[in-house]
Amino acid sequence: MNADDFPTPDVDVETVDPETLKDRIDAGEDVTLLDARMQSDYEEWRIDGENVTSINVPYFEFLEDEIDEEVLEQIPDDREVTVLCAKGGASEFVAGTLADRGYDVNHLEDGMNGWARIYEAVEVERYDGAGTLLQYQRPSSGCLGYLLYDDGEAAIIDPLRAFTDRYLEDADELGVDLQYALDTHIHADHISGVRDLDAEGVEGVIPEAAVDRGVTYADELTTAADGDTFEVGDATIEAVYTPGHTTGMTSYLVDDSLLATGDGLFVESVARPDLEEGDDGAPDAARMLYESLQERILTLPDDTLIGGAHFSDAAEPAEDGTYTAPIGELVEEMDALTMDEDEFVDLILSDMPPRPANYEEIIATNLGQNAVDDDEAFTLELGPNNCAASQDSLAGD
Predict the structure, then answer these.
(1) pLDDT tens-digit profile of 274-327?
(2) Rounded to whole angstroms, what are the CA distances from 346 to 246, 278, 279?
(3) What gap in Å lies between CA 268 and CA 135, rounded to an integer?
(4) Lowest mean pLDDT among 42-46, 230-234, 274-278, 368-372
(5) Residue 85 is a catalytic residue
(6) Could you read off the pLDDT of 155-197 as tens digits, one per residue?
(7) What's the Rg (C-alpha) of the chain?
(8) Closest of 389, 391, 372, 357 to residue 116, by C-alpha
(9) What are phi and psi of 87, to 5 degrees?
């Protein structure tokens, strides 16, 4: 049943927009959610939080005039309940049905699609290089990006296609010229925005080491080799080749202060090594990752900040609200960073989460081998990122 097919409720149902719901969750309010999607969709991807009570009752349970009492007993009648679905149609119908029975309910505008459009920019306060560094955060998928700006110029690292206009608008509001759009690697969980920004006059940059994977548009963009630098005002961004998660993974050292590691190292885990060559190639990729960590990343000064391209539900934000941490702190808290090579490989191959939804099609799109329109691109990347090697945090155990 399509969202447009649900009848309009006889009772007026209040709508809550995704940003307001997130503000309430962030403020520590107790929030109760009734997720009306199918169980499989719910188990793959949902809104969570320490102060969030989430209940899954699929919408079809509410289609009969006589709703089963066991269904109604699952829904609290002593507090406000926010109903949500994929796009907002089913949730409005379910909320209306419950409101008609005396429940205190509202429903989430545009459902999980609306949740996926939340994109926040938070300043990295511990960044001490030239200019200002912002971290973009997409809570629905855990995607992170970085905007550096200084002296009228700016660069974006790991941009998302869905927010191309947002980057340009933000640069305009800041009064800076967006010079570069840099990708750390061929992403497997979201559609890159580098080519779209390049089409808008921003210089698109991809790792030189990623081209051999079958990138079809490499001649149209700038390629970054290990040691290449990009100037943004008085700041310098240096490419640091750090293969492991992929053979082309390239981190970017932002003015000697923060290393944007893509999916090589996160504040709560290390990268999974199986998305390029599959299970058969994962052990060799894991050894390559170990070498990159030990010889390229952990040799940087202890106060160098690490900022990955993703965060998971297991990640804890820093005091400034960003998912960044100094290298020295991560070494103290993450045993994986002090293991010998064999232990490391065994660890990260032992507990990998399910692969990201639609990852093969997303990779093909990011290689330029598959063309999708904006709506298809947005739909492909809905869901969790699952780019870390562990479902749980490896830090602070």
Answers:
(1) 888 888 899 999 999 999 999 999 999 999 999 999 998 888 999 999 999 999
(2) 18, 16, 13
(3) 17
(4) 274-278
(5) yes
(6) 999 999 999 999 999 999 999 999 999 999 999 999 999 999 9
(7) 22
(8) 357
(9) -125, -10
Residue pair 307/124 in contact (Cβ under 8 Å)? The answer is yes
Residue 52 DSSP SS3? strand
- Helix or strand (DSSP H, E) at 31: strand 31-35
d(CA 91, CA 85): 5
C-alpha atoms less than 13 angstroms from C-alpha of 239 in its C-beta half-sphere: 24
CB 345 within 8 A of CB 287: yes
pTM passes above 0.70: yes
Confidence class of residue 390 from pLDDT cuts 50, 70 and 90? low
Residue whose entry in the numeric block shows the structure tokens 């297991």:
314
User: For tokens 């829904």, what's the residue?
Assistant: 75
Nearby residues of 178 by Cβ (< 8 Å), 6 or more positions away? 154, 155, 156, 167, 168, 171, 197, 202
The SS3 assignment for 83 reads strand
> 137: which 2 tokens?
């955060």
Of 13, 31, 85, 130, the active-site residue reads 85
Which residues lie below 8 Å from residue 65, measured CB to CB, with a gap of 6+?
Answer: none
Burial class (CB in 10 A: 0-12, 13-18, 19+), 50: exposed
255-267 pLDDT, tens digit per residue, is: 999 999 999 999 9
Strand partners, 237: 230, 254
| 372 Cβ contact list (under 8 Å, min separation 6) | 191, 365, 380
Q: Measured between alpha carbons, how far is 100 from 88 in angstroms, rounded to an integer? A: 18
Angle in degrees, CA 195, 197, 200, rounded to 5? 115
